Amino acid sequence: MRHGNYWTAIAIASCLVCMGWAGQPDPPGQAVGTEPVHEAYLFAHMMHQDYGRLYYCVSLDGLHWKALNQGRRVYDDYRGHPDICKGHDGRYYLVGNRNDSAPDINFWVSEDLIHWQRYSDVTPDLEKAPGYGQALQRIGAPKLFYDTGSSQYVLTWHTPHEHGTPEDPERYWASQRTLYLTSKDLKTFSGPPRRLFDWDMATIDVIIRKQGDRYYAIIKDERYPTLDWVTGKTIRISRAPSLLGPYSKPAPPVSPNFREAPTLIPSPNGKVWYLYYEQYPGVSYGLSVAADLNGPWYQISGYTFFRDWDKYALPPEVRHGCMIPIRRSEYEALVKQEAWPSDTGKRDDSEPRNLNGERSREMAISVSSPAFDEGGMIPSKYTCDGADISPALTWDGIPAGTKSIALISDDPDAPVGTWVHWVMWNIAPDAKGLPEHVPPRPTLPDGARQGISDFGRPGYGGPCPPGGTHRYYFKVYALDTTLELPSSTRKADLVAAMDGHILAEGQLMGRYSRK
Length: 515
Fold this sequence. Notes:
Elements: H1 3-21, E1 40-47, E2 50-59, E3 66-67, E4 83-86, E5 92-96, E6 105-110, E7 116-122, E8 140-147, E9 152-159, H2 170-174, E10 177-183, E11 194-195, E12 203-211, E13 214-221, E14 234-240, E15 259-266, E16 273-279, E17 284-290, E18 298-299, E19 318-326, H3 328-336, E20 366-368, E21 393-396, E22 404-414, E23 417-427, E24 433-434, E25 449-450, E26 470-479, H4 491-498, E27 502-512
């Protein structure tokens, strides 16, 4: 080739890139020139700054998604990691739970995906799970699948059997196992819960889908990647001849490391699978594509916010949930909806909230600390990077009639949901605060009691975020009673015991990120 022709070719190629012709071909599976098998899609999800609440995006092609309700919540009463399936009566069922330490799993039902009603609850007896007697009282990310062949639901979730520690927080995640219950109507359930897999491996975020006469469990391999196990924290797929197994050992990963919360939809023409997964902590979304759930899979370029390379696109800061096909008429109704049932807008983190995240009844208590200001950075002395002792707290505004004071400290930004750092009750009603370094004992000399944090021990456990800057709330409650609770008490137990007894409350929020 002559030099002149060579440089001309380079110039033409450069122009093509500038014109937006860069990148890979469009993803397969679109219904071009034909009627789509799957007309539209709904993505029910959380947001990075409003974890565990319900938001919607919709799409016509399964690739390009737009937010509904101007990016605000669509239903305020929901808590959990959204997962929706169409059930036995043609209605939609939504599953969630208040937090991982809550003992119950909750269900809602809807005719139109807009108006939801509370439907039922189930409290799995984790202590009776066969071969898993060491299970902790933790229920993570419930998922729901309805099998038309057997006319039953399978409810899955993950439960650990070891507490994390500041020195080894990863052992909590390495001990996660997937459990399940079955039901015909989501009113009565099989029991006790059982392990879904007969092989022993840390798994979370498991969803079940069917292709042909085979069932597929799409999992997150929760083992941390190391030189010995380089494929940890990835999305993998197991298959089984029947709904409840036995499931094969997982196939090789279909995603890079540090991906979670898989969600699967069929393409518009019904011939290709789109498998989405989140790169945590909430920084991007990935997409792998295959014509068969057995693979091979390949990754699509997208969610880069560089239009030339984005073959799929989602709004910024979306967190995980579930995607489902819907009818075009349902899509149109969702897009046209103007007045949503609970349209209070996106949560304002500067506004104090009560135990359940609602706007407070009365935030009369002023809480402060000599160690940090409201919204300020917590010194490392009070974290796992330092002495890991509790900071001094002061408060005022305790109302007349208070019989005791309770305290909860938690982190709503943890990847698992809300991570509990401190549970305390029966603090004297005339106390003006707490000193620095409250001893980590169940009972203190003045009669105050301390329960179990999510680190699995009594007393305070300091901030130890796995990444990014997290918020840490110190919430103080004035109660009209004292509480008779055991030393094994966790946040959910204390919340239940305080219900109906809170006279006033207040909170202090500090931030921390590891160096």
